[in-house]
Amino acid sequence: MLPEPASYDPGWTLLPSRSADPSDPPHPADPLPPSPRPDRTASTGIPGDVPRRHKIVIADDHRLLLDTLVPLIAEEFDVVGTVGNGEALIEAVATRTPDLALVDIGMPIMGGLDAGRQIRRTHPAVKLVYMTMDQSLDLATQAFAIGAAGYLLKTCAASELVLALQIIASGGTYLTEAVAGGRVPDLLAPAEVGPTSRLSPREYSVLQLAVTGAPMKEIARQLGISPRTVAFHKYRGMAALGLRRNTELVAFALRHGMLRRQN
After folding, report:
1. Mean pLDDT throughout 50-78?
2. Does position 105 have pLDDT exceeding 80, yes or no?
3. Is residue 173 part of a domain?
4. Is residue 153 within 8 Å of residue 125, measured between CB atoms?
5. What does pTM read for this prediction?
6. Between 20 and 30 A from 164 (CA), which of 98, 173, 218, 260?
């Protein structure tokens, strides 16, 4: 006679099925196994540490655009400041120490390109990203000549802006195809720092207005300083550039792109 097979214990018992009784108390659902915690070690090298978000300052003199950009960019970056002119941007970069600066080119008091020159001299680690309505290839060339890391049009899609900022934050460079037209290598070629880097932000602002022929009182009104202070910065700036006459200043401004452009 064959031996009886060893009994198999599956570890659970099959209960006979029965109709649900409305009077029975509800049975709690079986608890699910806990979800594994995400391992962030691969991205930061420190177990459980959250990757640092890059800090960004946004400069644009259109309040409505700023109000639109901030919540969009804040999903991926820490927006540590918003300003409306180039001088305020220089101050924000110095005090907020951002990783990136998203900059409008045509701003009052000091434009984006002028502010960018100063920032590249004093805070070269900050990545400059320019936005403008101007599709001029010449303007894009000027931006990259001073060390810009990115250049976009204000008509770009929100997804393109965020992608560009992510690429630049990771160490890359971005130039919108709408402007590049296949000339990316030429535009990204580095250039030497120009003589305007010798000027302070205030000296540059005063000289930029002076070349338009604006009188001292009008320059003082626009910059919110006294006419005497305007004169001080004008002559100090001209001395730094080796200029003695207003005609020399105008010629210098034409050669080195100091004349303001509107975007």
Report:
1. 91
2. yes
3. yes
4. no
5. 0.58
6. 260
